[in-house]
Amino acid sequence: MASLPAGKILSIIFLLLTIFSVSKAELDAHYYDQTCPQLEKIISETVFNASKHDPKVPARILRMFFHDCFIRGCDASILLDSTATNQAEKDGPPNISVRSFYVIDDAKAKLELACPHTVSCADIIAISARDVVAMSGGPYWNVLKGRKDGRVSKASDTINLPAPTFNVSQLIQSFAKRGLGVKDMVALSGGHTLGFSHCSSFEARLHNFSSFHDIDPSMNTEFALDLRKKCPRPNNNGDAGQFLDSTASVFDNDYYKQLLTGKGVFNSDQSLVGDYRTRWIVEAFARDQSLFFKEFATSMLKLGNVRGSENGEVRLNCRIVN
């Protein structure tokens, strides 16, 4: 068998290394430095102004990012509107309460004026999620950019989102499918430090919980009785619910402190304390807010790396494919 000349071998090695480095370096913190240098300023101003007028915006944007990345990767499929022939993700049962899409639309419209056909809707969500965390008192990190927008969005896929009824084993399995470990799962659950839940997501813990307990025994009794007053049966108030920690507009480690006193709103939250695989992480984050912030930022970067389809595009309007 004839051997290749040394120069030819070096050329092939160089080509392979180039292909590998390009595939590994698709996301880059400096992706828009030349093509849209004002990108971050435009997005942060848009998000800040929206949050000033509606204090629910930060929690909604952060949830939007989670729910987008968990389905088909971070590809802005959650932004696509349903059509006559397709029910989109945003109309799937877990996403009915995901709101504030107008904030992303507003940022996109401004970016189309500043740098047309350049910035993907997926990158706008990722940057906005970082911004709402930072402006609420949480950590700041450099968002890696260069995502493309997906062309597929199906409501039926939302069944793959982790549910508020999940136990730790189910949570670990769900996050592992996205390349995220146990520490990532506990850190990202801390995103619940911002936000509010309607009664429907946790009322099963408050009434006829089991044949032995009317109320979930893992709940703080006083806390559970207070929630029962807010979420009676029958409940005619569709807006009734509970903030997910006691400082719901501030990004801090109070969520973990609440869990250790039995005041987790969701079963998926409170279960983190009852399982040896996760309790030590909850305790560490409750003790040390700076540790939580560091791990949260690291895990958000990992979640932001969950890739969408290879044949994506940069949408001109975040609600419809080009």
What would the keywords be for this entry?
mainly alpha, 2 strands, 12 helices, two-stranded antiparallel ribbon, 322 residues
In short:
By secondary structure, the chain is mainly alpha-helical.
Note down, in words, how this protein is organized.
The chain has 322 residues and is mostly helical. It has helices spanning 6-24, 39-53, 57-72, 101-114, 121-135, 168-176, 182-189, 221-230, 254-260, 267-274, 276-287, 289-304, and strands spanning 196-198, 241-243. Strands 1-2 form a two-stranded antiparallel ribbon. The longest helix has 19 residues, at 6-24.
SSE layout and pairing:
Elements: H1 6-24, H2 39-53, H3 57-72, H4 101-114, H5 121-135, H6 168-176, H7 182-189, E1 196-198, H8 221-230, E2 241-243, H9 254-260, H10 267-274, H11 276-287, H12 289-304
Antiparallel strand pairs: 1-2
Report Rg.
22 Å
Please tell me what the overall shape is.
Answer: globular
Structural class: mainly alpha
Strand order of the largest sheet: 1-2
Helix content: 40-55%
The end-to-end distance, rounded to whole angstroms, is 51 Å
The percent range for strand residues is under 5%
Low-confidence regions: 16-25
Order of helices and strands: HHHHHHHEHEHHHH
> How would a crystallographer describe the biggest sheet?
2 strands, antiparallel
**Mean pLDDT metric:** 88
Total strands: 2
